[in-house]
Write a structure and sequence with these properties.
The protein is α+β, with helices and mostly antiparallel strands. It has two domains: about 10-50; about 65-175, Nuclear Transport Factor 2, Chain: A (Roll), CATH 3.10.450.50. Helices cover about 20% and strands about 40% of the residues. A hairpin with a 2-residue loop joins strand 1 and strand 2 (about 20-25).
Length: about 180
C-alpha cells in the first residue's frame, strides 16, 4: 500500500493467524530518506517453519510450600538480604495498614525500598510458625523496629500463586494497629 492515510508505504503480511502491517510514515519536518525506509521495511519477512528455532521446553517451577516461604522470609529478614526476599515475592507487592488504604508496586521497586530501609537501620524479626489465617488469607507475624520510632507489628501475607505454577509467594505487608 502506498500513500495511504497515516503512512507513506506499508506492507501487510499474514503468518498463520496473525497479520502484520509493516510500514513507515513521514512526520512534519521529517528528514527521513524514503529510499532508506523502503529498504528497512522490505527487509522484513515472516520466518518459514524451517527458519524458526525449536522452542526450548520451560521446566515447571519447583513447588514451594507456604512453610518454605515463611522460612525464607525469616532468614532473609534476619540477614537483611532484600535480594533473597525477592526470590519469594510476587511480581507485584502490596502494602497497607489495618483499617486504612494500601499501595501496590512492582517487585523491583519494593526490593529497592527494602534495601534503603535496611541501610537506614530497620530490623525485622519474622515468626515463621505458626502460619495463621484470617479473612485476608495466610500470614506470618513480623516485628519491624525502626531507629527512633515505635516498634510495629506487620503481617506478611502468603498466597498460592497460580500464575507462578502454583508456588507460594509473599505478596502483602499489612501494618497492624497497636492495641489500645
Amino acid at each position: 500500500m502506498k500513500n495511504g492515510p497515516g503512512f507513506i508505504a506499508a506492507y501487510v503480511l499474514a503468518d498463520r493467524s496473525i497479520i502484520y502491517a509493516i510500514g513507515y510514515r513521514r512526520g512534519f519536518n521529517s528528514t527521513i530518506d524514503p529510499a532508506v525506509m523502503e529498504r528497512i521495511v522490505t527487509s522484513f519477512h515472516v520466518l518459514a517453519d524451517n527458519e524458526r528455532p525449536s522452542p526450548t521446553p520451560t521446566p515447571a517451577p519447583a513447588s514451594r510450600s507456604a512453610e518454605a516461604v515463611a522460612d525464607a522470609l525469616a532468614d532473609g529478614f534476619a540477614r537483611k538480604d532484600a535480594d533473597a526476599l525477592a526470590a519469594v515475592m510476587a511480581p507485584c507487592m502490596s502494602q497497607g495498614a489495618e483499617q486504612a488504604g494500601g499501595s501496590t508496586m512492582p517487585r523491583v521497586r519494593f526490593v529497592a525500598e527494602l534495601k534503603r530501609s535496611f541501610a537506614a537501620g530497620v530490623a525485622v524479626t519474622v515468626q515463621p510458625r505458626p502460619i495463621e489465617t484470617d479473612n485476608n488469607g495466610s500470614f506470618v507475624r513480623s516485628t519491624w523496629t525502626q531507629p527512633d520510632q515505635q516498634t510495629s507489628r506487620r503481617d506478611l501475607y502468603l498466597r498460592n500463586d497460580r500464575n507462578d505454577g502454583g508456588r507460594w509467594v509473599w505478596h502483602l505487608v499489612l501494618v497492624r494497629q497497636p492495641p489500645r
